[in-house]
Inverse folding.
């Protein structure tokens, strides 16, 4: 079923909308949840919460790209679940690696205090647009989909060291851009 038809079902409050959404986007959303949670039960629960949240958001929201809409919901729910689960514990290796990598571009003050959220989004989108297709895919796969270095290396047919170098180089670029934009 086409995305526009699924959205229409939500707007009509037809309960088959959830079934159609689930059948079309379970694999996509499961991958997002799994990469963060690394637990089948938690990922499945996150999917159920995603479908429920989509039911609550539509209407009034009418997403222009349904896959991005449900992917964003899933990612947010998975991050919340991860934080709750690991609140008092040290995070496991994969997420600890991702968080550690992003520490390079953290600031002693929050970006929200320095930049409006929309400005920050515009800066990051401009940064991503300037990257080559391969570099953009590597960066998004690591920091949006939370893929492992190994998975990304396999996807691009290069060594893990090459991916690590690429990510490090592009994090540093983003850090310079963010610092320049915050100071400006």
């Amino acid at each position: 079923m086409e995305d526009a038809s699924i959205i229409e079902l939500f707007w009509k409050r037809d309960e088959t909308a959830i079934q159609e959404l689930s059948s079309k986007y379970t694999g996509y959303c499961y991958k997002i949840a799994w990469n963060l949670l690394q637990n089948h039960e938690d990922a499945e629960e996150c999917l159920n919460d995603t479908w429920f949240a989509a039911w609550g958001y539509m209407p009034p929201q009418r997403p222009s790209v349904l896959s991005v809409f449900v992917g964003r919901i899933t990612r947010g729910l998975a991050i919340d679940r991860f934080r709750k689960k690991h609140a008092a514990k040290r995070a496991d290796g994969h997420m600890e690696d991702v968080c550690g990598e992003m520490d390079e571009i953290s600031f002693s003050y929050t970006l929200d205090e320095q930049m409006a959220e929309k400005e920050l989004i515009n800066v990051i989108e401009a940064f991503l647009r300037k990257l080559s297709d391969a570099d953009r895919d590597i960066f998004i796969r690591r920091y949006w989909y939370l893929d492992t270095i190994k998975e990304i290396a396999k996807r691009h047919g290069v060594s893990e060291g090459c991916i690590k170098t690429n990510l490090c180089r592009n994090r540093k670029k983003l850090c310079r851009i963010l610092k320049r934009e915050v100071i400006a």
In short: Confidence is low (pLDDT under 50) at residues 108-115. The longest helix spans residues 160-183. The two ends are 47 Å apart (CA to CA). The CA atoms of residues 118 and 164 lie 29 Å apart.
